[in-house]
Write a structure and sequence with these properties.
With 206 residues, the protein is an alpha+beta fold. The protein is 15% helix and 13% strand. It has five helices and four strands; from the N terminus they run αβαβααβαβ. A four-stranded antiparallel β-sheet has the order 2-1-3-4. It is globular.
Length: 206
């Protein structure tokens, strides 16, 4: 195999984003890189995230929709979010069949009686139609997700980014990371933070 030329980059003076292509950033070493959206919902379980709610007309304009411009906030699980963006699902992420029965063979009425807290009617996003609103949750500190498989499914030291971090400061997990979630229309403009490491791993979406 032909050796690739080495390059040294001074991140203190670099004025443009540094992007590692997929073939150079082995996210395949991260277990969560292989999770489907349903597996993300399953692994995060009942953990609730604070989502900002923005009208889609503001999401589509060229300037930034800042946090203080949110029209509302929603505390919800990933399963709630998936159920809201996928037509025909209940609030717990399982599918409705045309006869009104879910994938476990329970009728919608029976499921609602047995688990009203996770029924479609209880979905915290229900008041905000997806065609009118987008949702965004940021700064979710992963060290607060105790007993969550995601903590050990992030492997910074297995990526090129890990080679650039102080060994004693960065473990091979997600405990010093934050998790960001959003629907289409939600975004963060390119920027640099003045604290911590400015490494981002995109695991879903575009």
């Amino acid at each position: 195999m032909e050796d690739r030329p080495s390059t040294t980059i001074n991140f203190d003076t670099e004025k443009r984003p540094f992007v590692l292509p997929a073939e150079d950033a082995p996210l395949n070493a991260w277990p969560c890189a292989h999770w489907t959206l349903d597996e993300w919902a399953e692994q995060l379980g009942e953990v609730r995230f604070k989502f900002r709610v923005h009208p889609r007309n503001s999401c589509q304009r060229p300037d930034v929709h800042w946090e203080n411009e949110a029209v509302s906030y929603v505390d919800a699980t990933v399963a709630h979010l998936l159920a809201h963006v996928r037509p025909g699902e209940r609030g717990d992420g399982t599918e409705r069949q045309e006869d009104g029965r879910d994938t476990a063979g329970t009728s919608a009425a029976e499921a609602a009686a047995a688990a009203s807290a996770t029924s479609a009617d209880a979905n915290p996003f229900a008041a905000f139609p997806l065609e009118q609103y987008c949702f965004y949750s940021g700064y979710n500190y992963m060290h607060e997700l105790s007993q969550c498989a995601l903590l050990d499914a992030v492997r910074w030291r297995d990526t090129a980014g890990g080679l650039l971090m102080e060994e004693e400061e960065v473990k091979n997990d997600g405990r010093k990371s934050t998790l960001w979630l959003g629907t289409s229309g939600a975004y963060t403009p390119a920027h640099i933070d003045t604290y911590g490491y400015n490494f981002v791993a995109q695991l879903q979406g575009r």
